[in-house]
Amino acid sequence: MPAPTLVFDGDCAFCTRSADLARRVLPADVQVVPWQWTDLAAAGVTEERARSEVLWIGPDGAVAGGAPAVALALRAAGAPWSLAGVLLSLPPLRWVAPFVYRLVAANRHRLPGGTAACRMPPPAA
């Protein structure tokens, strides 16, 4: 992918609302697309990973997921958002952010804008 890309779950209303906010604050050259419309194989990402976490694909093709992806997107958004992205990238927030991210992701169907369709799929057996 030539441009930085934020990949989210397009079936989740909470994620879609979050992506709408991201589109408003990210620079015009950043793509914000649902994983369902993305060539995941070209990005080297599995569908399972895309279902379980937001992804940031850098212009160099490097992929970050979850809290680090959020931090990179915030940094790309510019001030004042970039300050939050920098803080999320530094200890101790960097250590706590993945736990908070997983808590939000596991409960996204309960958050404002969430629906039953936002529920995370059960882990593969």
TrEMBL record:
A GO term for molecular function: protein-disulfide reductase activity
Pfam families in UniProt: DCC1-like
Protein's name according to its UniProt entry: Thiol-disulphide oxidoreductase DCC
